[in-house]
Structure formats: C-alpha cells, structure tokens
Amino acid sequence: CLLLTAYCFLGTMPTIHPFGGLRYNPERIKDLSDVLAPPYDVIDAAAQERLYQASPHNIVRLILGKPSPTDTPEQTWHTRAARDFAAWRTEGILRADPTPAIYLIAQTFGRDARCRLGVIALMDLRHDLNGMVYRHEATLDAPKQDRTRLLEAIPANLSPIFCVYPDQGAATHTLLQEATRAAPTVTASMNGETIRMWMITDSRTIQAVTQALAAGAVLIADGHHRFEVAYAKRDRYPVLMTYFVSMEDPALVVQPIHRVIRQPLSLERLRRFCAIEPVRVHDLALLAWWLEAPEGQGRFGVWDGDQLYKVTLQPEPLARWLMAPSVPRLIATLDVSLLHQLLVPQLYDAAPTIDYTADASTALPRLNGKTDGSLWLLRPIPLPQVYALAAQGLTLPPKSTYFYPKVPSGLVLNPLASCIIASGLGLR
Fold first, then answer.
1. Cα dihedral: 128, 134, 136, 137 (round 10)
2. Residues 377, 339: contact at Cβ < 8 Å?
3. Residue 163's pLDDT band (boundaries 50, 70, 90)?
4. Alpha carbons 15 and 124: distance in angstroms, whole number
5. Which terminal residue of the chain has fewer beta carbons within 10 Å of its beta carbon, N or C?
C-alpha cells in the first residue's frame, strides 16, 4: 500500500490513510460468508471448530489456529498460520486491490434491522498517540504475547481494531450513508448479520473522512491488546488497520457484560446491603427497562436459579463505600465496580468463580432450578460516559463493555511487509 500525500492530514489527532487491501479472490472463494469470522478473542472452542469446518480458507486459521500436541517453541499454530497465509497468496486465494481505498462496511443486525456504518483505513502510529487514542480497558500480558508472536509470524494486520470517533452533527455518518447508495463491492453474512462493503476511492470522500477523524481523539472499542502490540512495533510497522464508527451512529450499540457467579447467594445476606423486589420471570422486558434507566447507582437484576429480583444498593453502604473507595471515585460509582469491589466480598465467603456473558438469555436456562450460582444483570455504561472516563486516563473494570456486533475478520487484510511508507511525504 502506498500512502499518498493527497490523503495525509497531519495535526494533533489521529492520521489515517487509504490502502490497497488484501482480499479474498471472488474467483476462488464463491461465498465470502464461508471465510469470515468474529475477532479472535470472542471465538470459543465450539465456534472455532465450526469455522474450521466452514472452509479450509476461513480466516480463523490465521487469527486463531489450533494448537497441536506436537507443537514446539519453534513450530506452533502461529507458524502454521504463516504457511497458510503465504500459500493463500501464492495460490491466488488472497489478492491485493490495485487502488488505495478506504473500505466502507454496513453491518445490518437484530430484529429491527439496524445498520451500523464504519470505515476501515490505516491509522498512522508514528505520532505520539497519547491524547489521540483513548483506552478504556486494561491489557494482559498473555494475549499481548500471543498477538506479538502472530505479528512476528505474519507481518500483516489480519483483523481491524475497532475505534469510535466524535462526529459533531453526524456529518461524517451522513456522508457515509450517501455512499451506500451505490452497489456494494461485496456482500456476505455472519451470525445472522448482513455485511456489505464498498471500496471508496473518491478523493473528496476520503479527504472528508480523513479530516473528520483528525478533528478529535478516538476511543478504542475493541482491540486494546492488538493496538498495544502494534504501537510497540511502530518503528517497524508504522500503521494499523482500524475500523472507525461515528459516535453519532444510532446503530452503535454498547451492551453490558453480565456476571454468572458460581457460588450460592444468600438472600438474607443480600438484604443487609440491598433492597430487593421479586419480578415475574416473563416480565424481562420490564426489568430491561428498569436496568437501562440512567438514574441511580447500584441497580442490578439478580436471578438466583428460582426467582428474578430487582436489586438496589441501599444508601448507607453506598455512602460508606464512596467515602474511601479502592478505585478512583468516578470508577467507584459504576455498577460494575460496586458489584465487584463492594458486594461480592460481602456476599460470598471466598473469591467465587465468575463467568461473563453479554447474552443473559443463554445464562438463564443454565441456572434454572439450580442453587449453586446466580446471574447478575448489569446496566450498560453510556458511550459518552465511557469516552469521558477514558479521556481522563481512567480504566474501566475488566469486562465492562461489549460493543455489538463484532467487526468481521476476513473482509480485508493489510500486509505490512509490502506496505511502503513513501519518503518525503511530510509524515512524522
């Protein structure tokens, strides 16, 4: 990909570039749906097997290969993925677009057929991005080591990270909506979602999107580990393929992540700290409305295996907690902090096992009639609040947000080894 001067906009905020992406060859891959996958970190073992069976060329083989009992430090799934990547390019399974572009993605999902719009472009990493790219999640060493090994084996951006950006008056979102009037370059589906993609090569449209993104800091929605790995390697690989969505997009959904706590819950102990009110199981729509109400702190839905309850933290324990919280005060007021930092230590005898799910409907049947665990339903944290906290350098507790739907992997790739950063373009 040749980064062209016409599309560079240098300032104090992120710079993006069009690029000639590497895409599945429609002459070899008849149905793009067969080779797409979600991001690697939401693929469990069962989903991985389904993706493996979908196609011998599914992108999962590159982003999350299967380990083997015969693996050695020198031979791992990362090295097998590198061989597949090289073979797919040689065999023409993957081929490069000849013209630099940004890639517009329309993702239609849900019963109400909402459509989220985003663009994939290259984010320039050669700036000091502190104050330009906000992070809201802490990262762990193990995933970063894994993604580093993959980058060393395959010098390419195999999946985009996901960022959101301020968009005053939804001007950029409106511009992208107009671009969807043309016939899409490709159409596919994944997990019941319809995915359309357009190659945008018009210089005026690219310039408008570039300038819009340069007008404010972006927030990482998904991909914190991959961002940190790429940023650490920026002297060698100075760009990162990124999917950008306007914060004014009405289809930008931030869901909560609920908790399944694998230990019996004592209602008597719960009443010491919270007011509880039984709710009919079939009244989940009412509970959803109550949970999404913005006012108040410490509101939860709790299913104990037999009964669903509305749970509200009482004023006295809330006030005591806020007098000397163990985390910054703005973080301490979040429901997720109140649950983990205040309630869990008081309600359970030892550190319980906690599972996480963004889909409460799948957890309820597993707990039905059981007394060895409980489901805690949380409210979503509004996106403006997430952005404001991240802008202050504050990190949310783990598993606080779930941006839905996930960005498909396999729509476009960026081979870094062949990426030419032209000299004399005025780029830092």
1. -30
2. no
3. very high
4. 5
5. C
For 187-210, letters b (16+ CB in 10 Å) and e give: ebebeebebbbbbbeeeebbeebb
Contact of 404 with 297, CB cutoff 8 Å: no
Q: What is the pTM assigned to this prediction?
A: 0.91
- pLDDT bin (cut points 50, 70, 90) of residue 370 is low
Dihedral sign for Cα atoms in the order 89, 146, 418, 39: positive
Assign 371 a pLDDT band (cuts: 50, 70, 90): low
Evaluated on CA atoms 405, 409, 413, 415, the torsion sign reads positive
Q: Find the range with the poorest average confidence among 45-54, 225-234, 237-246, 347-356.
A: 347-356
Q: Give the count of alpha carbons within 13 A of 402, CB side only.
A: 18
Mean pLDDT of 173-186: 96
* Short-list 136, 130, 132, 133, CA closest to 395: 136
d(CA 225, CA 147): 8
Whether the predicted pLDDT of 7 surpasses 70: no
String of DSSP letters for 222-287: E-HHHHHHHHHTTTTS-EEEEEEEETT-TT-EEE--EEEE-S---HHHHHHHEEEEEE-TT-HHHH
User: What end-to-end distance do the CA atoms of the chain give, in Å?
Assistant: 18
Backbone angles phi, psi at 425, to 5 degrees: -95, 0
161 phi and psi angles, rounded to 5 deg: -75, 170
Three-state SS string over 292-329 comes to HCCCCCCEEEEECCCCEEEEEECHHHHHHHHHCCCCCH
